[in-house]
Amino acid sequence: MEGVPAGRELTGISACRTGVRAILSRGGCQSVIVSFSSNGAKELSITTIKEDPYTMSQGSELEGYCIDLISKLSKELGFSYKVHLVKDSRYGSPDASGSWSGMIGEVMRGEADLAVAPLTVTATREQVVEMTTPFMQTGLSFLLNKNVTCKERHFGFLSPFSTNMWIGVLIAFVLTGLCVFLVARISPQEWEPDTESRSFTLVHSFWYITGALTLQGAGPHPKAVSGRLVSAVWWVFAILLLVFYFANFSHMQHGNSKHASIETFEDLSKQDVIDYGTVEGGSSKAFFKNSLIPTYHRMYEHMERRKSYVANIAEGIARVQRGNFAFIGEAVSLDLAVAHYCTLKRSEEVVAMRGYAIAAPLGSPLVKNLTVAILRLSESGVLTYLRHKWWPNSCVGVQEPQSADALGLQNLQGLFLLLGLGLGLGLLIALLELLSKARGLAKDGKKSCCSALSTELAQRFRGGAESADQESSDKSKA
């Protein structure tokens, strides 16, 4: 059988599809579970802790990542072993008198030769036991329920459109206002140098297109074909833009009304709706307690004040499932919960990177050999295989409610393209209208068409200065 050294007799072991399983003797959780007998060689006593998926009960047996890891290490190094569960179900932390609890305490007192579990490497533990190289890397993150409630943002009415989209709408508004003004100034039907009243000033042009956004309109309306074309294109743009805005706004209100906006530890520490906590006496609590970063230390004070610690990871996950609680723990353990419970989600932020390692008594000669064996398993891909084996995702293919995202420029490219083509066509038609008038004036005045066109443009875009000079010249001649 895989994992059994040659020439050794296997006792108390069962083969199964998932790998080597340890058998509980007499149904007890703290007695010897697995043993190899080996011609009088010392049998290593290994302590572990029940935690999914590292060590789990399967009827009268134990299985999991750590059970498989022990089997692989025994095959690499050729040792026999027995496994038992830690008596107090604790990882290990010192009390006021300096005595250690949990697996670390058992290793220190000689009750176990090794502790194989998701045991975090810390400076405090390194002072009292020997730690191998980590067999798994992880960091701290937090777990939330997807349906947890939170406070709404003050500017939530801007959420249907992304920032780039709002910038695009503003640019479109300015360009359209300028285009309406230019078309009205260029087209002979909208503006004549000799008339006093001119409807489409620059201010009125922007007021006119603002009225379109409110679906009310603001007269007078354009009379020329070019002006009407620009006006019609802007109205179509404004109506479709409002349709997309209100549709996405409604989707967000119904689909995301309970979707939490807490993404980082900073967000978690600044709100008071969702309580949060971590495992009592674990390395995660020690990180927050000793951290010099104000955010993390403030979170530790909050947990101390609320007494929001949990006894183990299973209790923390259960509280998250009940709602309005965030559980802080190692990201690798939280990923397993997310894979099993599709209503949970893990924050993308991971801090305080650390590793899981095997603990042995100080001065133990086993540490060097175990470190080399772990590195070999890592290089050969065995550790990666075990990770994929024990972290299956049962949420694959589960249809989740789709959260509404803000619309961006890429979603409404066609609408902006339509507006751009309409504005360009309107300016072109206005120029053709002015060119038609310039040709008529050129025939009547017996001068070139270009000269008549330049005169018309000068009268329209030099602010009436030439017209005033001309009027004063005519008066002096009279």
Automatic annotation (TrEMBL):
GO terms for molecular function: ligand-gated monoatomic ion channel activity; signaling receptor activity. The record marks K289 as: Interaction with the cone snail toxin Con-ikot-ikot. Residues 53-109 form the Ionotropic glutamate receptor L-glutamate and glycine-binding domain. GO terms for cellular component: postsynaptic membrane. Pfam families: Lig_chan (PF00060), Lig_chan-Glu_bd (PF10613). L-glutamate binds at P118, T120, R125, S283, S284, E330. Disulfide bonds join C342-C395. The record marks I262 as: Crucial to convey clamshell closure to channel opening. Residues 43-393 form the Ionotropic glutamate receptor C-terminal domain. The chain crosses the membrane at residues 165-187, 199-219, 231-249, 355-377, 415-435. InterPro entries: Glu/Gly-bd, Iono_Glu_rcpt_met, Ionotropic_Glu_rcpt, Iontro_rcpt_C. It is a multi-pass membrane protein. It is found in: Postsynaptic cell membrane. Keywords: Cell membrane, Disulfide bond, Glycoprotein, Ion channel, Ion transport, Ligand-gated ion channel, Membrane, Postsynaptic cell membrane, Receptor, Signal, Synapse, Transmembrane, Transmembrane helix, Transport. PANTHER family: IONOTROPIC GLUTAMATE RECEPTOR. Receptor for glutamate that functions as a ligand-gated ion channel in the central nervous system and plays an important role in excitatory synaptic transmission. L-glutamate acts as an excitatory neurotransmitter at many synapses in the central nervous system. Belongs to the glutamate-gated ion channel (TC 1.A.10.1) family. This is Glutamate receptor. It comes from Merluccius polli (Benguela hake). The lineage of its organism: Eukaryota, Metazoa, Chordata, Craniata, Vertebrata. The gene is GLRK.
